[in-house]
């Protein structure tokens, strides 16, 4: 009997250790005598996910674990088999096979697993989700029901992706973008129609995209065009965790990167920078490397 208990304990400790290595810092406890669990990691290019099997176990992140882990990501949790409960903030959701939920790794959370639970946990970078949702608030800890077309299509897409051998970086990034696009209607927090600040913020983002190629696009011009003071503009972006000038610069860089990924022509890099509003080719190259870790030329070679 003691040997059996010790064996289960060793198995539990090993499972928790693997969870911490693959998913980040979690605390854990067993919820009965029949604990079982294992985890398998899958990674291909930009796709990083794990298959988590668990029975009678609890995983949770307090502020201490959040501080110790990598917070700049979300977990898109796909329930494949069995049942589990996910909780974050005031939201608590029971998942059955086919359901999906989104969990913010930068906030405390609590997962409990019943009998024969199997999940796929897909890592979604914060920056990718927030840019795709255009900095709308993200709903976490809500159930996306298995019967919804969004859940069905998302399950098929991500499971099919794990069956592919050697996805290229570009293919894996496109898959990640597609998953976020599919989930968008279910995870975006709709602001009230009477939220004046939100409407002005959306107007500002639209104006930036419309005039992003203009070299003279700047916070002063933006404030004037959307009808707010400079202080009001800065405060509006600050509520989203953004700095106006930095957002404009990063938006230009992201569009430059998209052009490099999609273009087959050997356009001069200085001309590319100019076409997206960068008047100084040296500054463009430096800013691009600071954002993406490699120069524009190396980035283009990577996607050639």
From TrEMBL:
HTH araC/xylS-type domain mapped to chain residues: 202-302
Signal sequence, start to end: none
Gene3D superfamilies associated with the record: Homeodomain-like
Entries under PROSITE patterns matching the protein: HTH_ARAC_FAMILY_2
SUPFAM superfamilies: Homeodomain-like
Listed Pfam families: AraC_binding_2, HTH_18
Superkingdom field: Bacteria
InterPro entries: AraC-bd_2, AraC_XylS_family_regulators, Homeodomain-like_sf, HTH_AraC, Tscrpt_reg_AraC-type_HTH
Entry keyword set: DNA-binding, Transcription, Transcription regulation
Function: Regulatory protein of the TOL plasmid xyl operons. XylS activates the xylXYZLTEGFJQKIH operon required for the degradation of toluene, m-xylene and p-xylene.
NCBIfam families: PRK09685.1 (NF007243)
Name assigned to this protein: Transcriptional regulator FeaR
């Amino acid at each position: 009997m003691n040997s059996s208990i010790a064996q289960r304990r060793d198995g539990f400790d090993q499972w928790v250790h693997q969870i911490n290595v693959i998913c980040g810092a979690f605390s854990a406890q067993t919820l009965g005598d029949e604990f079982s669990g294992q985890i398998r990691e899958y990674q291909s290019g930009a796709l990083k996910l794990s298959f988590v099997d668990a029975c009678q176990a609890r995983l949770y992140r307090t502020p201490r674990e959040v501080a110790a882990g990598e917070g700049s990501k979300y977990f898109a949790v796909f329930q494949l088999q069995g049942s589990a409960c996910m909780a974050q903030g005031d939201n608590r959701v029971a998942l059955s096979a086919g359901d999906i939920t989104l969990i913010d790794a930068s906030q405390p959370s609590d997962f409990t697993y019943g009998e024969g639970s199997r999940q796929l946990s897909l890592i979604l970078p914060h920056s990718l989700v927030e840019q795709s949702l255009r900095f709308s608030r993200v709903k976490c800890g809500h159930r996306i029901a298995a019967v919804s077309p969004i859940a069905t299509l998302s399950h098929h897409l991500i499971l099919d992706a794990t069956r592919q051998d050697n996805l290229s970086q570009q293919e894996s990034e496109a898959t990640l973008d597609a998953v976020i696009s599919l989930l968008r209607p279910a995870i975006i927090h709709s602001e009230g129609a009477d939220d004046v600040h939100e409407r002005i913020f959306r107007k500002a983002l639209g104006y930036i995209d419309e005039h992003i190629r203009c070299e003279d696009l700047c916070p002063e011009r933006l404030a004037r065009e959307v009808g707010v003071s400079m202080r009001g503009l800065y405060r509006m972006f600050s509520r989203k965790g953004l700095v106006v000038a930095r957002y404009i610069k990063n938006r230009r860089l992201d569009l430059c990167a998209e052009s490099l990924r999609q273009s087959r022509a050997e356009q001069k890099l200085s001309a590319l920078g100019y076409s997206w509003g960068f008047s100084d080719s040296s500054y463009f190259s430096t800013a691009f490397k600071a954002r993406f870790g490699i120069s524009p030329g190396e980035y283009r070679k990577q996607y050639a």
